[in-house]
Automatic annotation (TrEMBL):
It is a multi-pass membrane protein. This is TonB-dependent siderophore receptor. CDD domains: ligand_gated_channel. It comes from Herbaspirillum aquaticum. Belongs to the TonB-dependent receptor family. A motif (TonB C-terminal box) lies at residues 777-794. The keyword Transmembrane applies.
Length: 794
């Protein structure tokens, strides 16, 4: 009897997908477009039937064949970019079998009529299969890329890079239904979110050091990302560099040194992209996303990618409503020697009741309240962002390339500014205060340079000279009103009404960061030895527009030295030394010492490690040490005051592995161990004590599995463990560690003649209550959250 292997036709959520299709005028686009799209695949060698099924699932097409014709046949696998027809042809190379397209858009694998009897094992003409040399191509499993960009150092494979890097692909973003950058980068144990979903803004911790959204780069430019949340729907890839990234990317405006994050915007692919996605977020937020991409011209040199998002409804926080709208367009031109791109986006968010933070004066840590509890009833947040950035590259000849980029971004927000201090283990809080914190930040960023490639005495050189600049002006209006209203974490009361008049933001501060970088990457001994050396001359100009006496202008030279040694082709041993100059910045208006200017400070890192590519799995190990000026937040008369006091030294051990454990089982595992100490503190008060808000250890395990009993179904889970940490540098109060479990599933099928991908994720499956730490403040975690979506690809 003939067995037919195919996708089920009508899964449970098909009605949602059909609604999404009818909601879009793109429903008229022919379903056959999917067959012409060239996508990236990474399918291992193995039994032919398994390889065919894996390819059909990832391509989103129906497949039928008689198992008898594939029995005892092997496939060489598939790596690179292929259309559906090209992929089947490559997998069937060396066999007499053919993939025949049916009228319903599916495929049937069969032996041609002429290839029967004694000719059944005849060998067809050889088709050459070459693996993609693009370092940004997906690695085994498709969740991360083989490499990525490193700013002025160009694009390189992870194995050729003397730093710890991870590059998350669009598949890695979509499979977890990421709504924010932190949903993706927190897959690494050295990275943690320091705000729960639905807070007033995103922030992260990398290698123990806080990093704000303002320090995230967009296509290599700082200052282009919203100060609250980045619209991840327009992001194709997320590149994470751990350790100071000053030489590679320049200085971030917020001075983060634990790492650098660069967002790569979506681009039109070689073949059409048309998709609509209906979304649901508990408790009752519904949304709709659209993604269109086309290429034009005789050589498809012109491209356009458009993304739009609208969502509105109640979130998992009690009484919370969040409305979001985003629109983006990405244009690009690839004429061989000339490459140009332009990206523009606009974003609006209107939230009622967001997730807050608290300071603590108690010496006993209260239990974290439910993530669904609204601890400050009555907060509001509105934010608007508009940005445009363009980049041009020109190959003057085969050895010399010139490039330039410029961007402009206006961010504005208006929000409530509540505050309270936790007094005891019972969760009582001091008198509530309420107010306004409205701001406008205008950023202009530029990056120009030249890259030369040449050989001398058998040594390959890549020399780069670059100049970048960021000018950022901050205006704000701040009003805080105290009250006699008290509250409790477990029985919160509404915020007091603000009676003061709300004014327009006025100019407060300006930061201008400029630098010149010169680097040379040398490759010797048949590329088994790579040395990267460079210098960046940095200038930090900080000026208070509210107090002209507070001005700082400092210059420093930051070096980098990196070495990669490959004793064998799949093993990389590396070491690096980097240094950075960061703007000291200003304290916020809510500090006990508002608008105080801190001088720029230097940071430095030493790191060494090993990377081994086993073919389908890569394992890495690294030890590092980072030193930085210490920023300390303390309570003075109930008001948080920020000061610089001594230096921090963070040492760590990182272990990680990712790839495919076996066919259809993808994984990502990592662990980081910290030893963070203070020294040179005022009067030696905190010398030798642990640095506050840095956990002793973190662990991550993520699995993504193709279910064998139902073609097109995949299940995933992520377990996140964050260790305990001190609340402050005084080491008097411990914040307990926590473990969180997420699960999910996705299913690819056809509905109404279209390829549909259904996704379901449950975040914080066991509804764990825990505290998140951020430099002297604690915030609540997000509670159990259900995320559903149905994506229709036309």
């Amino acid at each position: 009897m003939t067995t037919r292997t195919r996708f089920p036709s009508r899964p449970t959520l098909s009605r949602l997908a059909i609604l999404a299709a009818f909601a879009s005028p793109m429903a008229a686009v022919q379903a056959q477009a999917t067959d012409a799209q060239r996508q990236a695949y990474d399918i291992p060698a193995g039994p032919l039937d398994q390889s065919l099924n894996s390819f059909a699932r990832r391509a989103g097409v129906l497949l039928s064949f008689d198992p008898a014709i594939t029995r005892d046949r092997q496939s060489a696998g598939l790596a690179g970019r292929y259309t559906v027809a090209e992929g089947f042809a490559a997998l069937l190379n060396g066999t007499p079998l053919q993939a025949i397209r049916n009228a319903d858009g599916g495929y049937t694998v069969a032996a041609p009529a002429a290839a029967t009897g004694s000719n059944a094992n005849a060998v067809l003409p050889t088709v050459t299969i070459t693996e993609s040399a693009d370092p940004t191509a997906p690695y085994a499993g498709g969740l991360v890329a083989r490499g990525g960009s490193l700013g002025v150092l160009g694009t390189a494979s992870v194995m050729d890079t003397p730093f710890s890097t991870t590059n998350y692909t669009s598949q890695g973003i979509e499979d977890v239904q990421a709504r924010a950058i932190g949903d993706v980068i927190a897959n690494d144990a050295s990275v943690r979110n320091t705000n729960g979903n639905g807070g007033f803004g995103d922030s992260y911790q990398i290698r123990g050091f806080t990093m704000s959204a303002n320090d995230v780069a967009f296509n290599g430019l700082y200052g282009m990302v919203p100060l609250t949340r980045m619209p991840i729907s327009m992001v194709e890839r997320i590149e994470v560099l751990k350790g100071p990234g000053t030489l590679m990317y320049g200085m971030g405006p917020a001075g983060g040194v634990g790492g650098a994050v660069n967002l790569i915007p979506k681009r039109a692919h070689e073949d059409p992209i048309s998709s609509v996605t209906a979304t649901y977020l508990s408790n009752s937020q519904f949304g709709l996303k659209a993604d269109l991409g086309r290429r034009f011209g005789e050589q498809q040199e012109w491209g356009i990618r458009v993304n739009a998002l609208y969502a509105d409804g109640n979130t998992g926080l009690s009484g919370s409503n969040q409305q979001q709208s985003t629109g983006s367009v990405g244009l690009d031109y690839n004429g061989g020697r000339v490459r140009w791109s332009l990206d523009a986006y606009t974003q609006h968010e209107d939230a009622r009741n967001f997730r807050p933070q608290f300071s603590i004066s108690s010496l006993v840590m209260p239990d974290a309240p439910s993530g669904k509890t609204n601890l400050y009833p009555g907060t509001t947040l509105q934010s608007d962002d508009k940005a445009v950035a363009t980049r041009l590259e020109y190959d003057i000849n085969d050895q010399l390339t010139a490039y330039g980029a410029v961007g402009y971004h206006v961010a504005s927000s208006a929000q409530s500014w509540p505050s309270a201090t936790i007094l005891n283990a019972a969760g009582d809080t001091a008198a509530l205060s309420n107010g306004y914190y409205d701001q406008k930040v205008v950023s202009t960023s530029a990056d120009v340079g030249m890259r030369a490639r040449f050989n001398t005495a058998g040594i390959k050189h890549t020399v780069m000279l670059g100049v970048n600049m960021l000018d950022q002006q901050t205006d704000y209006f701040f009003l805080s009103q105290s009250s006699n209203v008290t509250s409790n974490l477990y029985r919160p009361v509404a915020l007091p009404t603000v009676t003061g008049a709300r004014g327009a933001p006025t100019p407060q501060s300006q930061i201008r960061l400029t630098s010149v970088a010169l680097t040379d990457t040398l490759s010797l001994a048949d590329d088994r030895l790579r040395i990267t050396a460079g210098l960046r001359r940095q200038q930090v100009y900080s000026h208070s527009l509210a107090d002209a006496t507070q001005t700082s202008n400092k210059t420093a030279i930051s070096p980098v030295l990196g070495v990669v040694v490959k004793p064998v082709q799949n093993v990389s041993l590396y070491a690096n030394y980097t240094a950075a100059l960061s703007a000291g910045g200003f304290t916020s208006a809510s500090d006990g010492n508002p608008n105080q200017l801190f001088p720029p400070y230097k940071s430095k890192q030493v790191e060494t490690g090993a990377k081994i590519d086993w073919g389908r799995i890569t394992t890495t190990a690294a030890v590092f040490q980072i030193e930085q000026a210490n920023s300390s937040t303390t309570l003075v008369n109930g008001v948080s005051t920020t000061t610089q006091d001594g230096r921090n030294r963070v040492r760590g051990l990182e272990l990680a592995a990712y790839g495919e454990l076996q066919r259809g089982l993808r994984f990502n595992a990592s662990g980081t161990f910290f030893d963070a100490k203070q020294y040179h503190t005022d009067n030696g008060t905190n010398d030798g004590k642990d640095v506050g808000a840095i956990p002793n250890s973190n662990f991550n395990l993520g699995l993504d599995w193709d279910a064998p009993w139902l073609q097109g179904l995949a299940l995933n889970t992520r377990v996140t463990r964050t260790g305990s940490m001190w609340y402050s540098n005084e080491n008097k109060l411990k914040v307990p560690g926590w473990t969180r479990v997420d699960i999910g599933a996705r299913y690819i099928t056809r509905a109404a003649g279209q390829v549909v991908t259904y996704r379901a994720n449950i975040e914080n499956l066991f509804d764990k209550n825990y505290w998140l730490m951020q430099n002297g403040y604690v915030g609540t975690s997000s509670g159990r959250t259900l995320v559903l979506s149905a994506q229709v690809d036309f």
